[in-house]
Amino acid sequence: MKNHDTNYIDGKWTVSSGTSRIPVTNPANDEVIAEVVAGTAADVDAAVAAARAAFPGWSATPVGERADYLTAIAGKLTERAEDLARTISAEMGCPISISRAVQLPLPVNSFAEAANIVRDYEFEGEYRGSTIVREPFGVLGAITPWNYPLHQIALKVGYGLAAGNTVVVKPSEVTPLCAIALTEIVDEIGLPPGVFNIVFGTGAEVGEAIAGHDDVDIVSFTGSTRAGRRVQEIAARTVKRVSLELGGKSPNIILDDADLQTAVPASVKSMMLNSGQTCSALTRMIVPRDRLAEVEALAKATAEALPVGNPAEDGTALGPLSSRAQQKRVLGHIRTAIDEGARLVAGGDTDSDAPGAFVRPTVFSDVTEDMTIHKEEVFGPVLAIEAYDSEDEAVRIANATDYGLAGAVWSGSADRAEKIARRIRAGQVQINAGAFNANAPFGGYKQSGNGREAGLFGLEEFLEVKSIQR
């Protein structure tokens, strides 16, 4: 077991003012594999002070030099890709094949793309007689989740640093080990002291200290809508900019002319990726009522064929959930769905006393809009099938949610699918399994948050706008 008793502040590993530790548990077997320090508000004060002191120099650093640092980080992540993939699998249960294919390539892309975009970015220009200048906010507080732990740090740190901000990061206490590895890389490439700082700990202690800090100029948070509300509430006391990427209950409309043999299996497999622990997962499949039985049969066969097991083995499609607490929460949602009248098609009966935080791929049908499983994010391998009688009803059901992060449409006609996609109130919509674009703007409508991450929009999220009149 490894112990890590320090935070990274002002260019060096620094002993925390706190003495408590947080265990890091492998959710596949309940083994404690490491302990990290539980940082304190005093540690946040020190990290923010270092970031504030480093800001003038970093923001004045030529753009090309900033980009070179980010390119170097991307290169070092690539060199350590296999070790990092195994670290993520061990600390949050993601199957090793998914860690290699998704968990590592995404952050590598984010650092590399941030460097590419900023090299050519026009930070000022003329508009109707004024000079418009885009400049960094100052100190960026980044509070990140456990489901795509390295990717979510990269989206904030890569683009935040590219824009000229300095950063203070709080990684999830569930998945701190990949953040430690990233910090080792940052230290190795010689990023100037204070530009990147990381404080380990809980949301209640470290996260809230960052969100409410007087000298943090912008907060970027990814996590649940409940936690996002808390971050926004605390940050509002100092009227700082807050960017939120929150929960989802995303609809997947399968139109009556779609090829079900292709659409249903592909949709089930996509939704179950990372054991359903993806904020943009298409967890509501909205299907023609007269084809409901066919959809159910396909969904059941696909879900039951997914290999569930040891995330370290190459053939595993679904590992455990990230923790026992997450397993308990998901199983509670399954019991509630049954109690409220949803019909269980597949899965649903995981033995919570067995080793590991596993939940079998689960499919419900006969789901209606008054049910909790229609309304609330489960964040596990649980699919809800909802039936419709008309195209307009399908769109209405899709939009009958407090969330608006993602959506999808399947149809035999690309034009018809696009018309429906434009009616879905969500930040990104895919048509007929359109490939995920890691550099397209990512973010949501309604209670899925505000702001956008990745690509050009991700860079501009971390830039203030100034107009100069002569």
From TrEMBL:
Origin: domain of life: Bacteria
Claim: Heme is one of the keywords in the record: no
Active-site residues, record numbering mapped to chain: 245
Xref: InterPro entries: Ald_DH/histidinol_DH, Ald_DH_C, Ald_DH_CS_GLU, Ald_DH_N, Aldehyde_DH_dom
GO molecular function, one term: oxidoreductase activity, acting on the aldehyde or oxo group of donors, NAD or NADP as acceptor
Keyword Oxidoreductase tagged: yes
Keywords noted in UniProt: Oxidoreductase
SUPFAM superfamilies membership: ALDH-like
Domain Aldehyde dehydrogenase: 13-468
UniProt similarity note: Belongs to the aldehyde dehydrogenase family.
UniProt name for this protein: Aldehyde dehydrogenase
